[in-house]
TrEMBL record:
Broad enzyme group: transferase
Protein's name in the database: Mycofactocin radical SAM maturase MftC
Keyword Metal-binding annotated: yes
Enzyme Commission number(s) of this protein: 2.-.-.-
Domain of life: Bacteria
Cofactors demanded by this protein: [4Fe-4S] cluster
Species assigned in the record: Acaryochloris thomasi RCC1774
Gene: mftC_6
Length: 351
């Protein structure tokens, strides 16, 4: 049965007034354990893309390389999605764009909270100011990740192309002053560790402390989004795919852990959910990713219906998509280890 974090376990406990949600979540986990291809339970978690465009042009992100028309999800369409999945416990309003570019983001988060759904998002911090910051600070059941990929303007702006380091730091610091003390644990810094910024990881911990944040997640893998044309670049900046950097990576992580303990920063190292034939991906059984146009994609590591599309929630009901022949075949391919090419990058035993 797939892992559940302490935070998710606590969220489950808060669903005591909604036993149908707990039963659905347990049923979903049993479905994964038994490797059922037809599932009687719908996902209890979902990722929904509020917008498919961004104000940054980060070279490792697929948005920088595509020419899709910018599309924002409207709140009435988000509500329609929630109605199709009435037993949701977790929803991440995050896609391949900057969520705060969608002015209906806050109402969507409020709608989710009103339905006792644990909400979350990741922002680049550039728009974390003014009315949006005050509204986000008032939310009580929403977790926010803020990307900080460097401790200096030179490194940060080389990676977060189009962003201004000083502006992002100022926004974060002022936002943390707005957030009620009891909700500060819902705000987390996120750093994607690569060859271009690993030398500043220790200083990022100190910066996180200075900005008023209490936790930092280090992501030490680079996603290629299931695309061959992005795989080469991802490998070129990845620390984990280059054996010559493995010793340096271990040294950096050791130092960062020591500094985090000294600065009282809660450090988490996210090395990715990598799978094998005996430990297969749980996404086909537990969750889905819905694009801003309603297209259903199997997971957030793909996040593009041009790569694979299971259906569209504005054209057919999600429950029909979830148990469609295409989705069932997708599960069977994982069970048989006959993986689609776009899934193979998440498996360590596929060359």
């Amino acid at each position: 049965m797939f892992r559940i974090s302490g935070e998710k376990f606590n969220t489950l406990l808060k669903q005591v007034r909604h036993p149908d949600k707990i039963i659905n979540d347990l049923g979903m986990r049993v479905g994964y354990l038994l490797k059922l291809k037809h599932l009687p339970f719908l996902p209890s978690s979902l990722e929904v893309e509020p917008i498919n465009s961004c104000n940054f042009r980060c070279p490792h992100c697929q948005v920088t390389h595509w020419d899709k028309e910018a599309l924002k999800l409207k709140i009435d369409r988000f509500e329609a999605i929630l109605k199709q999945l009435p037993k949701l416990i977790w929803v991440k309003l995050q896609g391949m764009g900057e969520p705060l570019l969608n002015r209906e983001l806050i109402p969507m988060l409020e709608l989710g909270e009103s339905k006792n759904i644990k909400m979350s998002l990741t922002t680049n911090g550039s728009l974390l100011s003014g009315k949006a910051a005050h509204s986000l600070a008032d939310l009580t059941n929403t977790s926010i990740n803020v990307s900080i990929d460097g401790a200096s303007a030179q490194t940060f702006e080389q990676i977060r192309v189009g962003g201004k380091f000083d502006v992002v730091c100022k926004n974060i610091k002022e936002f943390m002053n707005l957030v009620d003390h009891k909700n500060k644990s819902n705000i987390n810094a996120w750093m994607v560790l690569t060859k271009r910024n690993f030398h500043e990881a220790d200083d990022v911990v100190k910066l996180v402390k200075e900005l008023g944040l209490k936790s930092l997640t280090l992501q030490i893998f680079i996603n290629d989004w299931g695309k061959d044309d992005l795989s080469e670049y991802a490998d070129s900046i990845s620390l984990v795919s280059d054996e010559s950097f493995s010793k340096q990576l271990n040294q950096v992580l050791s130092q960062v852990k020591e500094t985090a303990a000294k600065e009282d920063v809660d450090l988490r190292v996210f090395d990715g959910d990598f799978y094998t034939e005996s430990n297969i991906c749980s996404w086909p059984w537990k969750s889905s990713y819905i694009c801003s146009n309603g297209d259903v994609v199997p997971c957030c590591m793909l996040a593009d219906s041009d790569t694979v599309k299971m259906g569209n929630v504005f054209e057919e009901d999600f429950k029909d998509i979830w148990n469609s022949e295409k989705y069932q075949d997708f599960r069977v391919r994982h069970i048989k280890h006959d993986l689609p090419s776009y899934c193979q990058h998440c498996y360590t035993d596929v060359s």
